[in-house]
Each structure stands twice: as C-alpha cells, then as structure tokens.
Design a protein that fits this description.
By secondary structure, the protein is an all-alpha fold. The protein has helices spanning about 10-20, 30-45, 50-60, 65-75, 80, 115, 120-135, 135-140, 140-145, 150-155, 165-185, 190-195, 210-215, 220, 225-235, 245-250, 250-255, 260-270, 270-310, and strands at about 25-30, 105. It is elongated, with a radius of gyration of 29 Å.
C-alpha cells in the first residue's frame, strides 16, 4: 500500500518511470514498448500526468502490432475504466524546447490539470477507431489469439468493425477459444470452448450470415449448443421463426450488420426500405393467390349444388 494506493506486481521499472516523472526529469520514450511500460506504471500508481505523456506518444504510433496491447492495458488497468481518481498530477515546470529532441516530451505546467485531465481518453478513442478500420487484419492476426477476454468482448461487440463477412468475427472467436483452452491446460472440448469465451459467442451477428455460412461455420463449431444452432438456422431460413428465450433478447443485435457508420446509414436508407416493400408485395401476392384458390373451389361447389337441386 503506497499513499492509499494498493500496488500489485510493481516491477522496479515501474517505480523508475514514476520517480523520473515526479522528479521533473525529461521523459523520453525510446520505443512503443517503453511507452506502454510507462503507461502501465502510471495506471498502477494512478499517476495521470505520466499517463498523459505516454498516451500522447502512443496515439501517433498505433499499429497492427501494438494496438491490441495498448487497448488491453487501457481496458484492464486504466483508472478511468476502474472508477479510480488520479492521485499524481503533473508537477509544475517551465516550458522546455521540445524541438531539441522530437522523441522527448517536456513536462508543462497546466492550470487545474488535475481537474481537466481525462485519463487516456484520447488514446482509448483512437485505439477503437484504429481497431474498427483495420478489423479484418486484426481479427486474423496471431495477436488476437493472445488478448484478454475483456478485449475480446470489446472487439466482438463493436458494430463499426470494417469487415466483409461476419465469419471473420466468428473465426477469430473460434481460434481464441482454442488458444485460451491451451493456455489454461484445459481439454480441447466444445464445453470448455463455450466456458472460456464467457458469452462472447452470443455477440456474433449470426442472423447476418447466409444459411450456408452458418451451416459450414457456427453450426459445426461447438461454440453453440445443438438447440441454439438449430434455432438460429431455422430463423435464417424463416426470419419470423421464434428463438429460445435467451437468444430472443439478442435477436435485434444479431441482425445488425457491421461496417463503417456511413455505409450502415446508406443501407438503412436504401436496401432495407426496398427489401421491406418487396416483402410486402410478396405477402399481398400470396394472399391474392390464396383468395383465388378459395374462390374457385367455392364457386365449383356452388355450381355442383345448383345442378343437384335443379
């Protein structure tokens, strides 16, 4: 316990980052790994000023190889996400000439920084934007197999992922579940796959798949029970068919297409309206045919009865 802050697994390097910051030394990050290390130290010690410096460095250097690491650090340890208040504000210091070294960051006096600073907010939003834009590459990467389940949930719950098919999300989920079982030394069985994903299998947009995609992927994957697979396939074939109670509440989200917001808006204005009109016309056509069939049968019965009476 340090100054009322409980510290878990603090390495000497963590203390070094915080001490350098509090001593008003110039903070220089030699790599993104160093910046992530400083960000981790700032979260452990609730040092918002150090977190701000590391965030400013990382936000300009996000890449396929580090964005999931950064997102995991923010998701698991950011004080803003955990509901903790920062205890270390930026120390006051005169302006330094940051142009002397582009890789160094000068500590700057800011008025009321403890009130105005929002821990990692910009970095977090930039991470999510980067994840959305490069979703296909990230979902297929080896890095995706190694993330914490909390990051997995963030990924599979996002509607704005730029992907071509929902199978990309499902394939990533399947690969992650098997990798997690291996990490935990659990038997590679469907029951264990379903257990480790902690409900993420229900965040997949199954009702945006084609029946053939569903048969070849989710239905034989083991991530869904037999009852769930049968019900979802039947709903894909007959859209108005009921689902089990625990899936019925997710029906709307399972039908929602993923993609960039502008494309989703255009889809909402265009194809969905046309599709609804086509469905309505088809329904009216079926009613008309049914009416004609009933009328001709009734008419024939009436004529036969008339002949008998005559």
């Amino acid at each position: 316990m340090v100054g009322g802050v409980r510290i878990h697994h603090a390495a000497p390097a963590d203390f070094d980052w915080v001490l350098r910051y509090l001593s008003q030394s110039r903070i220089q990050f030699s790599s993104t790994c160093a910046a992530i290390s400083a960000l981790s130290a700032s979260h452990k010690f609730l040092c918002c000023g150090l977190s701000s410096l590391a965030s400013d460095y990382l936000v300009k250097r996000l890449s396929l190889s580090n964005v999931l690491m950064v997102l995991q650090e923010l998701t698991l340890h950011c004080p803003r996400e955990q509901g903790n208040a920062p205890v270390c504000a930026s120390p006051k210091r005169a302006y330094d000439n940051i142009n002397d070294n582009p890789e160094s960051v000068a500590l700057v006096d800011k008025d009321n920084i403890e009130n105005d600073f929002k821990c990692c907010e910009s970095l977090h939003s930039n991470c999510l934007a980067y994840v959305d834009k490069h979703a296909s590459a990230l979902l297929a990467s080896d890095c995706m197999k190694n993330v914490d389940v909390s990051v997995l949930k963030v990924m599979v719950s996002r509607t704005s992922l730029h992907i071509k098919s929902e199978m990309e999300v499902f394939s990533a989920l399947t690969s992650w579940s098997k990798a997690e079982c291996n990490r935990l030394h659990l038997p590679d069985t469907p029951d264990n796959w379903r257990a480790v994903v902690s409900g993420c299998q229900y965040m997949v947009r199954y009702l945006t798949m084609t029946p053939d995609e569903f048969r070849e992927g989710p239905m034989v994957s083991g991530l869904l029970s037999e009852e769930e697979s049968d019900a979802l396939l039947y709903t894909l074939l007959r859209p108005e068919a009921p689902l089990p109670d625990h899936l019925m509440v997710l029906r709307r989200s399972m039908r929602e297409q993923r993609g960039p917001e502008d494309i989703l808006i255009n889809k909402a204005k265009g194809p969905s309206t046309i599709d609804s009109k086509i469905c309505k016309l088809q329904e009216l056509k079926e009613k008309e045919l049914a009416y004609k069939d009933n009328y001709s049968l009734f008419d024939e019965m009436f004529l036969c009865l008339r002949c008998l009476l005559d």
